[in-house]
## 1
Amino acid sequence: QVQLVESGGGVVQPGGSLRLSCAASGFTFSSYVMHWVRQAPGKGLEWVAFIRSDGSNKYADSVKGRFTISRDNSKNTLYLQMNSLRAEDTAVYYCAKDRNWAFWYWGQGTLVTVSS
Amino acid sequence: QSALTQPASVSGSPGQSITISCTGTSSDVGGYNHVSWYQQHPGKAPKLMIYEVNNRPSGVSNRFSGSKSGNTASLTISGLQAEDEADYYCSSYTSSITYVFGTGTKVTVL
């Protein structure tokens, strides 16, 4: 069965950096587009970025130039490097597996808090 | 990219049907059939309910159905049950090769 497990969240000061990981299992990770989606406390879902199997990617305007999505197909792991963090980046970050342009499976999420 | 517009809340009695709308533009909802719907219970990860406008993943109740007309997609829940009380979000692929979510709708079962 598909399993996605995020890690790496925590408390970071404004302007700081953090790297999130998403360990995938139960499917051929290298064959699928993967996404990061976030949800600020009490707010709605916001798409952050996706990466294709060949490493090509796309970002939401709100994180472009600050966040970098990457993947290690040999480790079945998705990453999100977050730099120049702002208070408005505070959210639960989910990784999700794509199929048919939809988010088919989600991890449990990891909380990132940007605060001084 | 602006969020797709959904009603903040929709309510219904058990057994009734409700419909949640999701309005975008010709650059997202109206331009592609890549519209999906998600159910989220408090403190839980979202769950895919509908993909490609009107397709249900295996295991999702046939009480959930989707449709689209122009720039507006809709999710209908028939035979409303207490367990359907949750937040619902639509999502669409966009002409910018990105994705956008709706503002979210809280469904209350009276």
Note: The interface with chain A takes residues 1, 3, 32, 34, 36, 38, 40, 45-48, 51-52, 55, 57, 89, 91, 93, 97-104 of chain B (CB under 8 Å).
## 2
Amino acid sequence: SQQGEEDPQALSIQEGENATMNCSYKTSINNLQWYRQNSGRGLVHLILIRSNEREKHSGRLRVTLDTSKKSSSLLITASRAADTASYFCATGATSYGKLTFGQGTILTVHP
Amino acid sequence: SQTIHQWPATLVQPVGSPLSLECTVEGTSNPNLYWYRQAAGRGLQLLFYSVGIGQISSEVPQNLSASRPQDRQFILSSKKLLLSDSGFYLCAWSPPYRNSPLHFGNGTRLTVT
């Protein structure tokens, strides 16, 4: 069963705008990760936030985690056409490296 | 640096035929290895994971099996493919400790006809 659920399922924006994607999960976690997937390719790890962290930055990416609400958000600032991809959240629980992925958000950035 | 190789990139197989997908990792030792399946470009389903040679855990009962004959080699197999086995298969590795990211191969697009 899927643990993480992303919202929205699809997002279409103009270049330069910010993109926000949300993820909700159901059970306790050790960490939450965000991945990006270009069409027909493997997933690329973007950022990992541990359960005792509330916010993390990496370049134009900002991730927040609210364990009381069991939710996370990924913000991409000043988006570019090259950011067009599917974005997935994944939660890690107690087992080594095992992640449960959500259904993903399809982001389209128009030039 | 670490790299992961997965092949073939695409595969078309008839129903009832066998399957063997191979994945190898370079530049690291004792990785955790994973096979995921992705349907229709959406969420990933964990099929198998391995924390060491010969140690395979199955997440979903199905028509598939996995083996790890060497430390950095992970193989996904089937004796007889079903139409429902079609999908995008992704191999991944992670360091052998918690809170570590997964590193994915480029995937194999399997179509069972």
Note: Chain B touches chain A at residues 6, 32, 34, 36, 41-44, 46, 49, 51, 90, 92, 94-107, 109 (CB under 8 Å).
